[in-house]
Amino acid sequence: MRIVVLAGGIGGARFLRGLKAAAPDAEITVIGNTGDDIHLFGLKVCPDLDTVMYTLGGGINEEQGWGRAGETWSVKEELAAYGVGPDWFGLGDRDFATHIVRTQMIGAGYPLSAVTEALCRRWQPGVRLIPMSDDRVETHVLIDTDEGRRAVHFQEYWVRLRAEVPAHAVVPVGADQAKPAPGVLEALADADLVLFPPSNPVVSIGTILAVPGIREAVAGAEAVVIGLSPIVGDAPVRGMADKMLAAIGVETSAAAVAAHYGAGLLDGWLVDTVDAASVAAVEASGIPCRAVPLLMTDEAATTAMARAALDLAEAVREG
Amino acid sequence: MRIVVLAGGIGGARFLRGLKAAAPDAEITVIGNTGDDIHLFGLKVCPDLDTVMYTLGGGINEEQGWGRAGETWSVKEELAAYGVGPDWFGLGDRDFATHIVRTQMIGAGYPLSAVTEALCRRWQPGVRLIPMSDDRVETHVLIDTDEGRRAVHFQEYWVRLRAEVPAHAVVPVGADQAKPAPGVLEALADADLVLFPPSNPVVSIGTILAVPGIREAVAGAEAVVIGLSPIVGDAPVRGMADKMLAAIGVETSAAAVAAHYGAGLLDGWLVDTVDAASVAAVEASGIPCRAVPLLMTDEAATTAMARAALDLAEAVREG
């Protein structure tokens, strides 16, 4: 079975670990969000790609969900001693090495997709990880500051400001000019199943879908497309997806996110058991829906979630 | 008093520490060798400038004479895990931060001299440190390999090959096109005293003098020019200066190095007491010479050496 997963960072990566356990023989291609990418200290940092790579490759810091296990922080200390910022983004020494290798390869002319493949040769994530695009896309968030309304980089909004100020708009700058990376459209065309893990529907999956050609390829794919709600009850499972949904005028509920993706995109939707009451409404909109536990509390729970997605896909296919 | 010192790495840096102690009120300008600079992992590394900066700024690893005290090695470990080399150059995490800041500033358009000034704002070395040139100069060494005679980067010869193969030539690539960095010629013109510390006469001081205009400025300066022999007995005090001298056909002796610089450049020369017998020969060539202890065994010895250089300058001036 060929599965394509559109993935953000922590949530997507954890879900993928469950999916690998639930479908050990599947050929999994991950289309990774690069809208969170940021240049720091002259280095190209790809937080979502790295979180997937480290998580599936066994190098992740399990407690925090991002960054490296056994990390040290000498470089960051020294940069601070030089007075060089920003100081709000957590780059450890081991992580720095990844960005140094990536930046060097990009400087030598390799596209991000080739660089990602090279980095994965070490990590052996057990999936094919492709960035959504080799072109630069940078998610900006419109906020009110003392100097008026300003667009700030997503990481500045998310990490420095902790999404504590209202977001008036979310703009994937450059997305309209970006092309899907080599392999993205082919993987979608060849897929039996496309999964939207419980990643942020706006700044993770939404950004991937904003690259011209990808939304159309998902909608037009022969594959069954199944999504898992990132909203449980009236709050995001983790992160601050509610802030991002508010910015695009979508209610923070499992049913509203399903409606946001729409029946044109989704062939099936999983909501948490606490949201069982919304199953009927989602199905009424033309999207088959089931209520199952959607909290990735441990690997067993995550594997069960992935299995529920595979089961729903099977049911939809047999229709 | 205004003193200009032409300095390489470890030897130059240690001498400078003694000089600061011997002449606490002097205004010291250091013209640093950049021929040893190397691009590693996409980063610009300036070993000699950094050794001077760290040594005078209190950040040096005292035992090894280069690199940072309290260093960690995570980045290097990770680069090795990615299979990205070279692995023979010792870059610690703290050191990496310096190269990251430097590379970022150079990428932003600042010349190396401005970057060095910015880095020194943190380290407060107590001297004005100027690279010999803002232009790229790279010392290459001609050696015999299995694939025939090849030019290798100085660091590859020095660090990877430990100068264990004969050097047939030493070429400061790019020197003929380089211009002295802003402030270099002005400092030499305004100096009361120019010192050649016991740095490598070929790949450190020789490279600095190879930048068009610098040799002429030293020779034409109103300042007294005093050198300290890096050769004690028939061997370099440290490093492998003998290999480099052989490559340019100069005998490994204090007197031969004095003759190599020549009376046109030197107004005075210090040899070690074990070389007292060569004082007469050096003086016969027109260079006032004294024999004093030249081993930088500790700070007191180094300060005494610097004081001896100041004394000789005074004698020459009055002479």
Automatic annotation (TrEMBL), chains A, B:
Domain of life: Bacteria
Coiled coil start-end: none
InterPro entries listed in its UniProt record: CofD, CofD-like_dom_sf, FbiA/CofD
Keywords from the named record: Magnesium, Transferase
Pfam families for the chain: CofD
A molecular-function term among this protein's GO annotations: LPPG:FO 2-phospho-L-lactate transferase activity
HAMAP family per the UniProt record, alphabetical: CofD
Protein name: 2-phospho-L-lactate transferase
Protein's organism: Wenjunlia vitaminophila (Streptomyces vitaminophilus)
